[in-house]
Design goal:
single chain, alpha/beta, seven-stranded parallel beta sheet
Length: 256
């Protein structure tokens, strides 16, 4: 799919991987809609990048009516939606059993609700909108890109909720792609490794450098733009479908 004038919705688009994706889409001549709860950050990004290319819609990915309203607003403003990039997500550290007792069930449920159910909520509603697009020369009507994590494969101590939610994203990639193939919508998932995102903002530089040194090559944290670059490459390559791509510099996470 051609990036020029493609309309891309990005959940979690006000910061981190999502923000980098919004910026890259605008750089490549596309139009990006930020679907995020962070009002001030989203509006600031629109002001910086320009309203002709970027818009913000305050959106709760776990709420059906919120996502439906956002999709309708974007389609009404930009004409349609060609691509959905799901970056919205949360994480917490809690063991299955610790000195404080068993893992809180509400905490587990919240992570799964945002990371897995929220992702599927956007997938299904964006796909409904995309299905009405005119197919391009490859027969494509849309592209959906989800964000998992290497924790889906090598979850560390305390990552049970996060790992389960991201493994669910990986697990639904193939069946969703099969479901949507008849209408010409491709579905891919990116599984990032250690990336320099707001998740690490509270760590001192020395700690971030130590984490980056665990990566075989390059020995550093990933840059959000590298995620955005892969997302753009997925959008533009029509043979990429139904697969999860690790974007991790070759790291395999240890138990701790």
């Amino acid at each position: 799919m051609d990036m020029q004038n493609a309309v891309v919705i990005v959940t979690g688009g006000a910061s981190g991987l999502g923000e980098a994706t919004v910026r890259h889409v605008a750089e490549l001549g596309g139009k990006a809609a930020i679907l995020d709860l962070a009002l001030e950050k989203g509006q600031a990004l629109v002001k910086e990048l320009g309203r002709e290319r970027v818009m913000y819609v305050q959106t709760d990915v776990t709420c059906e009516s919120s996502v439906q309203a956002a999709i309708e607003h974007v389609a009404g403003s930009f004409g349609t939606i060609h691509v959905a990039v799901n970056c919205a997500g949360i994480g917490l550290a809690q063991k299955t059993l610790s000195r404080n007792g068993p893992h809180r069930l509400d905490h587990f449920a919240k992570v799964v609700t945002v990371n897995l159910i929220g992702t599927f909520n956007v997938i299904r509603l964006a796909a409904e909108q995309m299905a009405g697009n005119e197919p391009n020369g490859h027969g494509e009507r849309g592209v959906i890109i989800n964000t998992a994590s290497v924790a889906a494969f090598e979850g560390q101590v305390g990552q049970v909720a996060y790992s389960a939610s991201k493994a669910g994203v990986v697990g639904m990639t193939l069946p969703v792609a099969r479901d949507l193939a008849p209408v010409g919508i491709r579905v891919m998932t990116i599984a990032p490794g250690l990336f320099d995102t707001p998740m690490f903002d509270q760590l001192p530089r020395s700690a971030r450098e130590a984490l980056g040194a665990q990566v075989p090559f390059p020995q550093r944290l990933g840059m959000p733009k590298e995620y955005a670059m892969l997302a753009a490459q997925i959008i533009q390559n029509p043979m990429l479908n139904a697969e999860t791509i690790r974007l991790d510099g070759g790291i395999r996470m240890q138990p701790r």
